[in-house]
Every structure is written in C-alpha cells, then in structure tokens.
Design goal:
The protein is of the alpha/beta class and 339 residues long. The chain folds into two domains: 2-181 and 236-265, 3-Layer(aba) Sandwich (Rossmann fold), CATH 3.40.50.720; 201-232 and 268-338, UDP-galactose 4-epimerase, domain 1. 40% of the residues lie in helices and 17% in strands. The chain contains eleven helices and 13 strands. It has helices at residues 11-22, 39-48, 62-71, 87-92, 94-112, 149-167, 201-209, 237-252, 273-284, 308-314, 322-337; strands at 2-6, 26-31, 53-56, 75-80, 119-125, 172-178, 180-182, 216-219, 231-232, 234-236, 260-265, 271-272, 290-293. The strands form four sheets. It has a seven-stranded parallel sheet, sandwiched between helices. It has a two-stranded parallel sheet with strand order 7-10. Helix 7 (201-209) packs parallel to helix 9 (273-284). The structure holds uridine-5'-diphosphate-4-deoxy-4-fluoro-alpha-D-galactose.
C-alpha cells in the first residue's frame, strides 16, 4: 500500500517513514526542504534498505498539489507532518505560519477527498491544552486559547478536519496530540537537525555537551513542581513514529469508532528539566554546564498525558524510557558533529 508522508524528511516524519517501511508500506515523501536536509533520505535508506520515493514539492502551490495527487490516485493514506513549528518565530511571523500550516492542510484535504481511500493522520500538539486544570491531561480536557500563532494553527487544523469529516463520512481522520518528542533512531542514521540555536531542551543539552553552546539556561526553578523546574512528558521519537503506523492501520482496517478521532501521544510520566539533565549526565557519563535563569515567557508549569485512550483504543503504548531517548540523542549529536 502506498502512503504519502508530507514533511517526511523532518524529525518525526523521517522516523515514521522508517516504521512504515518496516511494516511493509510503500512510502512517498513530499518535502519542500525548507527545514530538512536531502541527506535524511540516505539515512532512511541505510536503516531500511529501501529508498522511499521522494518529491521536492511546496504544498503552498495548489496547482502542484493537484498535479501530485493526479499522478498518485492509488494512495491508501496520508500522514501530514509538513508544517512550521517554531513557537517564537510564529509570534514574529504569524501570517507565514497561517499560510504554511493552514493553506497547505486545506489543499491536501481537498485533493485527498477526491481519492478512493481517504485516510488522514494529522500532527497535532499538546499545546492545544495550554496549562490544563487537571493532570494527567486527557483528550477530554478543554482546548485553551492558543498562546502562539503556531499553537493556533494546530487548533484551527483540528477544527478544519472536524468540519471536513462532518460533511464527508468517507473521510477518516485521526489527530495525534504529541507531548514532547525527543531522541533519535538507535542507529544514529537519522535524528533531530535544528537550524541555528535550538529552542528545545534536548538538542540544547546535547549541543552544549558537544561544545557547540557554552551553557544550558534552565528557564526558572521557582515553579510549583517537584524541584521547581517545569515538567513535561518526553516521548521517544521512535515510540511516537510507531503510533502513527498503528493509527494509520486502524483507519485502513476501518477499526475507528468515528471518522474523526483524537489521541494523546505521551508516556504518561512527567519529568522536570533537572531530571532530564540528570538523565543525560547518567547516560553520557559527562557533566553538563547549566545555570538557572529567569522563566521563559509562555511556558506552562506542568504537562503530561493521560494515556488510557491510546492504550485501550489504539493498542499502543510507549516502550522506551527517558534514558533510552537521551542516550540516542547523544549518540546522534556525536555522530553529526564528528562527520
Ligand atoms: N527549557 C530550558 N532551557 C532551554 C530550552 C527549554 O530550560 O534552553 C525548558 C523549558 O522552559 C520547558 C522545557 O525545557 O520547561 C521543555 O521546553 P521545550 O522548548 O523543549 O518544549 P516545550 O514544552 O516548550 O514545547 C513543546 C514543543 C512545541 C509545543 C509545546 C506545547 O516544542 O512545539 O511543546 O507545550 F508547542
């Protein structure tokens, strides 16, 4: 079966392509290479032994999207990762984010609705919950007003899919709300490749340890949490990737309970920033240079997933630990710097 993966050379996309190929799917990747390297294609091929089909295509160009789908009418499902994802940048350039994340979603859905098999997986985010009133956060927790245009594109994206599914019962969608994806493939052939200074915790840690950054700033130690630093649900990207394959198989086998479903993807366990630092120091055997600084604007105090729905309905749960993720992130960082 042929599966389209948009943004398939990105961090989560590339790991998902590997897991799809492991399960025997034929994969076509679309990526505009705006935030990914073509070398990722080689990394995927080294792991699986099969080179996925690849088309460099900008999903903002509607005519190109139409032409692509015209040539691939046999697609059995679409996993849509392609989107911009930097929270800070989205505040500076909101219209870029609405164009990149919303227009492209609409164009892909319009073309998908012409196909025989209308199976669609959407990359959503736990950011839709904001600072939730109850922990762990279940899928029924209210969606809070978005803190950033990026977060808003995820909320609007879910609403667009919900509306499209209402009028077309043959369109089947699952939105996956990711908590904090980290780590890399155990082979170190693919991983996270942030451009410029990383905004996220784990790449900042590994870049500091490898000598690219002087020091990690820990944003605040006066939160009402176990050690004063923020708590997040860090999920290994390989576990996350496998969830996409399971979700897609659910749609293909028509096992979904409604034609628009939402699942949290997390471990269910909250880890503080200092616990992540400790895990890194343990698995790497190095001391990390860090200092506590002021809080970062917009950070929620604590977020971790209620995982019951994913476990019961999808039959999926995480298998890898925080230490596994930190070890794989470190192996990957060392490999790309020693090239
Ligand atoms: N942190 C630091 N120092 C850093 C970077 C991060 O202390 O240099 C802290 C943050 O304050 C936060 C934690 O590490 O407490 C995790 O921060 P990340 O930036 O890695 O992740 P976030 O939880 O802020 O953001 C993630 C995704 C976003 C998404 C958001 C939803 O990266 O795309 O979750 O909550 F919108």
């Amino acid at each position: 079966m042929k599966i389209l993966v948009t943004g398939g050379l990105g961090f989560i996309g590339s790991h998902t392509v590997v897991e799809l190929q492991h399960e025997g799917f034929e994969v076509v990747i679309i990526d505009d290479l705006s935030n990914a390297s073509i070398d990722v294609l080689e990394g995927i091929t080294k792991i699986t032994g099969t080179k996925p089909h690849f088309k460099a295509l900008d999903l903002k160009v509607k005519a190109d999207v139409q032409q692509f789908f015209e040539a691939h009418k046999d697609i059995a499902g679409v996993i849509h990762f392609a989107a911009s994802k930097a929270v800070g940048e989205s505040v500076q350039s909101p219209l870029k984010y609405y164009e990149n994340n919303i227009n492209t979603l609409v164009y892909v859905l319009q073309e998908l609705s012409q196909l025989t098999h209308k199976n669609f997986i959407f990359s959503s985010s736990c950011t839709v919950y904001g600072q939730a009133d109850e922990l762990p956060i279940s899928e029924n927790a209210p969606v809070k007003p978005a803190e950033s245009p990026y977060g808003n594109t995820k909320q609007i994206g879910e609403e667009i899919i919900r509306d499209a599914c209402k009028v077309d019962q043959s369109l089947n969608s699952i939105a996956l709300r990711y908590f904090n994806p980290i780590g890399a493939h155990s082979s170190a052939e693919i991983g996270e490749l942030p451009i410029g200074a990383p905004q996220n915790l784990v790449p900042y840690i590994t870049q500091t340890a490898v000598g690219l950054r002087d020091q990690l700033s820990v944003f605040g130690d006066d939160y009402p949490t176990k050690d004063g630093t923020c708590v997040r649900d860090y999920i290994h990207v390989v576990d996350l990737a496998k969830a996409h394959v399971v979700a897609l198989q659910r749609l293909i086998a028509s096992k979904n309970k409604s034609n628009f479903e939402i699942f949290n993807l997390g471990t269910g366990k909250g880890s503080s920033v200092l616990e992540v630092v400790k895990s890194f120091e343990k698995v790497s055997g190095t001391k990390l240079n860090y200092k506590i600084v002021a809080r970062r604007d917009g950070d929620v105090t604590e977020a971790y997933a209620e995982t019951t729905k994913a476990s019961n309905d999808l039959g999926w749960k995480t298998e890898l630990t925080l230490d596994d993720a930190m070890a794989s992130a470190w192996k990957w960082e060392q490999k790309i710097r020693n090239k």
